[in-house]
Amino acid sequence: MTALAPSGVGLASDRQWAEKGDSGQMTHRPPSPSFARDIMPMFRPDDIACMRPMGVRLNNPDWMTDPGGDPEHPDHANARRVFAVLKKGSMPPDQPWSNAWLAIYDDWMANGFAP
Ligand code: HEM
């Protein structure tokens, strides 16, 4: 009898953990995308090397998460400029990003451009 309450509590919290573990992996993206974990790995070494001389620092979290704006973008101009060319399909020149990759980048921006 007295064991019912504790075991009920135990089940509820077990289920919460299971839902987080399972659905987090299989049906949802991680809740807080980060540049280092989720975005930077999508840039190839050639992308990074090609763009470095033009001042586009694709492998630099400080540059990519710089909150500063420019005349075209109210904030985070570096990241937004990068997104604009990805979305247009002009970069990378040889192989435009898939919609799935664009969605990951968009999600990262919408969630605060975390490093
Ligand atoms: C994910 C990959 C890439 C991203 C996000 C990217 C991003 C960009 C951005 C933001 C610009 C505009 C620069 C500006 O506003 O001043 C640009 C221009 C340029 N990029 Fe990339 N780039 C990528 C890959 C590459 C690669 C692999 C090459 C070389 C093979 C390349 C060559 C160029 C060139 C020549 C320009 C200037 C001329 C133009 O706009 O077409 N990029 N890129």
Walk me through this protein's architecture:
This protein is mostly helical and 115 residues long. The chain folds into 2 domains: 1-30; 32-110, no CATH class. The protein has 6 helices and no strands. It has helices spanning 4-26, 35-39, 45-51, 61-64, 77-88, 99-110. Helix 5 runs antiparallel to helix 6. The chain is globular. Mean pLDDT is 83; it is low at 1-24.
Q: How is this structure best summarized?
A:
By secondary structure, this protein is an all-alpha fold. The chain is built from six helices and no strands.
Offer a few descriptive terms:
115 residues, mainly alpha, 2 domains, disordered N terminus, binds protoporphyrin IX containing FE
| Helical fraction | 40-55%
Biggest beta-sheet profile:
none
Per DSSP E runs of 2 or more residues, the count of β-strands stands at 0
Q: Structural class, from secondary structure content? A: mainly alpha
User: What is the overall shape?
Assistant: globular
Strand content: under 5%
| Individual helix count | 6
| Strand and helix order | HHHHHH
